[in-house]
Design a protein that fits this description.
Blueprint: H1 2-16, E1 21-33, E2 39-51, E3 54-64, E4 73-84, E5 87-97, E6 102-117, E7 120-131, E8 140-150, E9 155-166, E10 170-180
Antiparallel strand pairs: 1-2, 1-10, 2-3, 3-4, 4-5, 5-6, 6-7, 7-8, 8-9, 9-10
């Protein structure tokens, strides 16, 4: 119930800020489990708002072996990320749902995002994530490198490579499209 309240609060903050920049993103990820060799796909939807140097967002994601088959897991996150020049720091609260369990988790991340040339950016960062409840095998540290390109003033695309260590040993490639409004 607390997660629902947090989601509603972020949603109200996102919609209610008159001086803010809203956006929506769609994501597609291809992941490989280094321990088992299993392949996985993940789709995500992010709705957010940037105001006063802080990015508030809600992320919903769905993951399975391939579209239409395999076990499905889902997650819902509320997120806040503060930009400090090129450096950023963020925090997330989420709920993970599978066919056999569900649990709440937290994550913290930081990184640096800088321009290369007009319209082209690089983002290098790390994330630590863990379940609030012990025994859920969700403790991971992930590093990433992403390259983004501004197509128009409102449209951008990005590709990200990441590697996770800990309870999940995964390599992933993510494609992302973002529309600002």
């Amino acid at each position: 119930m607390e997660l629902v309240k947090a989601v509603l609060l972020v949603g109200l903050m996102s919609v209610g800020s008159a001086m803010a920049q809203g956006y929506g993103s769609v994501e597609y990820s291809d992941e490989n489990n280094r321990k088992t060799g299993a392949e996985n796909i993940k789709e995500g939807l992010v709705i957010g708002n940037k105001t006063g140097g802080v990015d508030y967002s809600i992320k919903m994601e769905n993951s399975q072996t391939k579209i239409g088959s395999g076990s499905i897991s889902q997650a819902l996150e509320v997120r806040a990320k503060k930009s400090l020049g090129a450096l950023y720091v963020g925090a997330r609260l989420g709920e993970r749902i599978t066919s056999s369990t569900h649990f709440s988790y937290y994550a913290v991340d930081s990184g640096v995002k800088f321009p290369l040339v007009a319209g082209l950016t690089v983002d290098v960062g790390a994330r630590y994530r863990n379940a609030f409840e012990s025994g859920k095998l969700y403790q991971t540290t992930r590093g990433h490198v992403a390259v983004g390109y501004l197509l128009t003033k409102q449209d951008s695309v990005a590709v990200r490579w990441s590697r996770s260590y800990g309870d999940e040993e995964k390599d992933g490639v993510r494609l992302q499209y973002t529309r600002s409004f």
